[in-house]
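[step 3/7] inverse_fold.run input=structure_tokens len=209
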């Protein structure tokens, strides 16, 4: 990722949380994401890496659920907000400035989670391979992505084969509940849960759809 990309995301930091699914300020939106994440992740405490964590809303929510969370993002201004958010909520999250496509972190993790970041990264196949090396055998790669009305993003039909090439199993779940987004949606948004290396030692509530 480039300096220009860092500057772009720094510029977005001040208004990033205005989107309901970014800031998670609304109680219904926060509850909806809590349920999705509880179903997707193993029972706490799991070691979770949130790549491209932005302002840290998901990182903080996961820490509140009892997980041990590390977040990495390229934008220092995003991370400043993330650290302040964790302090306000009374949880500990280790936030690190760095390139989400090449996380300079020490694993292994039980979960590598990414929400709405893959569309901005080059060579996604290589990125997925790198992320899976950070997982314990049977660890989970959790991807929340979409193909938005703006034309940005990944169609699930295009992304799922890349994920399956990098992992042993992968399942898809559409994310159509309007409470997740603060209102109805007309574009494609979905969750992929993939297993690294072998069948997961965890039980989740997410089925293949």
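[step 3/7] decode complete -> sequence:
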């Amino acid at each position: 990722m480039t300096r220009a990309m860092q500057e772009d995301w720094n510029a977005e930091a001040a208004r990033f949380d205005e989107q309901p699914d970014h800031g998670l300020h609304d109680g219904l939106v926060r509850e909806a994401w809590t349920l999705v994440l509880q179903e997707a992740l193993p029972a706490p405490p799991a070691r979770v890496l949130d790549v491209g964590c932005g302002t840290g809303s998901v990182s903080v929510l996961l820490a509140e659920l009892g997980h041990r969370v590390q977040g990495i993002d390229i934008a220092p201004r995003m991370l400043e907000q993330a650290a302040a958010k964790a302090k306000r909520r009374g949880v500990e999250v280790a936030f690190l400035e760095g390139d989400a496509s090449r996380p300079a972190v020490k694993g292994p993790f039980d979960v590598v989670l990414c929400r709405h970041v893959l569309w901005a990264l080059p060579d996604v196949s290589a990125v997925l391979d790198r992320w899976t090396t950070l997982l314990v055998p049977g660890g989970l790669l959790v991807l929340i992505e979409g193909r938005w009305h703006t034309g940005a993003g990944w169609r699930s039909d295009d992304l799922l084969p890349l994920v399956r090439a990098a992992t042993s199993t992968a399942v898809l779940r559409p994310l159509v509940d309007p409470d997740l987004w603060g209102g109805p949606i007309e574009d494609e948004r979905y969750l992929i849960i993939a297993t690294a290396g072998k069948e997961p030692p965890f039980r989740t509530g997410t089925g293949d759809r």
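[step 4/7] annotate
The chain is about 35% helix and 25% strand.
Residues 3-16 form the longest helix (14 residues).
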